[in-house]
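Reviewer comment 2.1 asked that we show a complete input and output for one of the modelled complexes. We chose the pyridoxal-5'-phosphate case, as it is the one discussed in the main text.
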Amino acid sequence: MKNIPFVDLKAGYYPLKDEILEAISDVLESMQLYIGPNVTALEDEFAAYIGTKYAVGVGSGTEALLIALAACGIKKGDEVITTPHTFFATAEAIYHAGATPVFVDIDPDTYNINPRLIKEKITNNTRAIIPVHMYGQTADMMPIVEIAKAHNLHIVEDACQAHGAQYDGKNCGQFGAAGCFSFYYTKNLGAYGEGGIITTNDVFLADTARKLRNHGHSSKFEHSLMGHNSRLDELQAAILRIRLRHLDEYNNLRRKIAKMYDEMLSGLPLRLPAEKLGNKHVYHLYVIRCKERDELIKHLTQCGISSGIHYKNPVHLQEACKPYGYKAGDLPVTEAICGEILSLPMYPELAKSDIAYVCECIREFYKM
Ligand SMILES: Cc1ncc(COP(=O)(O)O)c(C=O)c1O
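Response of the prediction step:
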């Protein structure tokens, strides 16, 4: 029996090992661990990659969202519209900015926020929209940008799962006031620890975010804002600079793997991921949908295959969100898919023979 992990971080590390160890050693020899040449260079290189003027390295994707919201002026009493089908951090960032999350149901094909349902949730208190580019595919940005313009709302993109994903030929992270990325180690661009980055074309937002990530520091001994301790460190930045050079190559491998899954799983009573016309999906996750999800997981486990669920419970029904007053049935598309989604093994180095094995095991499940 094979043993197929859900992600294989070592397979990504070994080909770059010498380069990464040298970069780590250079940082340690310099003992410049505080925001320094690697953080600054990564910010320039990442901004150039995404296509924005500025990027600001921070401590995590969650803090990228929180700092971006604060830099947009989001505060107590404000409402921020987002999707309930996301990692919990999106809602947490809204809460910690002092605002209230307002959840809008998702599109049944892409599992991203449904733009047609946004308008009815806008009130006098709405200040921002956070579209989340789930699994590596961008939300439908054109209608979202139009709604935001018409209602004078900020857009803060949650691109934590979507480094290099494109909408209409443009990288996500440049469609709104700010784009927020996570460098959590399993992401398409992962550090070997925690990290995140904010992209923006707005010089004021970039400057404010730089202050907020570093205790509101405006100059030595002076603090003009109440900020956070959320600096990206030099070691992570040095590693990320190397991995960023390979991001497109990794994303293309992920796309090839997705295509193989698509072909090998076709004809089964499963819903495969739908790449929308004009989108470049970067398959942070390859998520199928099936009624017998929990039995299929058991079968895959027996076959030595690890899988995942992203995510099992919708955010609006989490206990922590009780104060917002949502109940089961309020956001039916999200609630329906949470019981049916299943993430298959996905990482750039996943071998064709392993993909074939995963698909064979799934076929076998449907014959049983
Ligand atoms: C959609 C989404 N938003 C936010 C985050 C938070 O990022 P981090 O773990 O770097 O804080 C994640 C990370 O899992 C995520 O997937």
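The chain has a mean pLDDT of 98. We note this here for comparison with the apo prediction described in Section 3.2.
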